[in-house]
């Protein structure tokens, strides 16, 4: 793991997010006629060009908390600070928050343990925890115990999203990011991911009906799926599939994130999740310099990435 990958991941999330913000909720047909090719402004949320959303804000809160080790309560409190005061917001305000995340953070704010605060119902499987998992993957890069990795991912996802489907989606994403750190070819890393996850699942007593939702990712090759069959809604499995599909079917950072955003629907989150994958894969030098300069809080992002690079050499241990 080197500096290029870390800074690429941090910028990768924010830039993919910012490309998608102005066209969130736009249809695929609309974006086929009016594709996103660069930063645009205003649109869906009336925000200036380069503005990132809750996806990046909560990612950066996660990273900042992990600077001093893994402490779940500290992380959850930073999320509350974002929700209530715009902490780590692109412009220090909150303009977008999912319902499951909002209700969960209200529980944390009123004293519920972050181990119990997340939504547990089947309808609470949006992508609101998946979108912020990039720093978790980097933090766990040198953690050899897959059971420990799963536990930490489950707890961090569970601050807002505690249903098994959301947790497993986050875990698959974290494991793929970890593999990309040492296996730069996305397809090779994807095959390794399938082997690793399927072996892990075989040792667990998870509900097979739930695991089956991941068959396209884990038993088939999502890369061969036709674009018409890739769904880009806010459902966690759709976001995970579409982000990985975008990485596997492109050859550069910009091609990957623009493909993700132009799928339509939940454009900012698909862009952010795909952007982290492509950022690790291609590094900061693979991201257009103009996007790095124009994204909101660019210097703050660079500083956080630098501090994070230093901090993650510590072992992945901590308390809830």
Automatic annotation (TrEMBL):
InterPro entries the record matches: ADP-ribosylglycohydrolase (IPR050792), Ribosyl_crysJ1 (IPR005502), Ribosyl_crysJ1_sf (IPR036705)
Keywords in alphabetical order: Hydrolase
Which superkingdom? Bacteria
Q: Pfam families given for it?
A: ADP_ribosyl_GH
Family, according to the entry, reads as follows:
Belongs to the ADP-ribosylglycohydrolase family.
Protein name in the entry: ADP-ribosylglycohydrolase family protein
Species for this entry:
Chitinophaga nivalis
């Amino acid at each position: 793991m080197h500096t290029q990958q870390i800074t690429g991941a941090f910028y990768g999330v924010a830039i993919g997010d910012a490309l998608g913000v102005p066209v969130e909720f736009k249809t695929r047909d609309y974006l086929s006629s009016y594709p996103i090719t660069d930063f645009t402004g205003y649109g869906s949320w009336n925000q200036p060009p380069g503005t990132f959303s809750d996806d990046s804000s909560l990612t950066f809160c996660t990273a900042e908390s992990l600077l001093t080790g893994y402490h779940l309560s500290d992380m959850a409190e930073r999320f509350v600070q974002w929700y209530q005061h715009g902490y780590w917001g692109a412009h220090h305000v909150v303009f977008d928050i999912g319902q499951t995340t909002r209700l969960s953070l209200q529980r944390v704010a009123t004293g519920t343990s972050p181990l119990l605060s997340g939504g547990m119902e089947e309808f609470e499987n949006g992508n609101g925890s998946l979108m912020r998992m990039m720093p978790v993957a980097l933090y766990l890069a040198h953690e050899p115990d897959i059971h420990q990795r799963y536990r930490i991912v489950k707890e961090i996802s569970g601050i807002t999203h505690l249903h098994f489907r959301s947790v497993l989606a986050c875990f698959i994403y974290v494991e793929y990011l970890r593999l990309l750190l040492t296996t730069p070819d996305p397809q090779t890393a994807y095959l390794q991911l399938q082997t690793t996850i399927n072996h892990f699942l075989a040792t667990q007593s998870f509900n097979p009906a739930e695991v089956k939702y991941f068959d396209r990712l884990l038993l088939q090759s999502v890369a061969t799926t036709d674009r018409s069959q890739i769904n880009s809604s806010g459902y966690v499995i759709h976001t995970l599939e579409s982000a990985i599909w975008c990485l596997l079917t492109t050859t550069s950072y910009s091609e990957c994130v623009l493909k993700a955003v132009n799928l339509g629907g939940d454009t900012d989150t698909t862009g952010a999740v795909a952007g982290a994958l492509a950022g690790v894969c291609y590094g900061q030098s693979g991201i257009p310099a103009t996007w790095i300069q124009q994204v909101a809080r660019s210097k703050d992002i660079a500083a956080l990435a630098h501090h994070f690079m230093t901090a993650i050499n510590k072992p992945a241990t901590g308390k809830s």
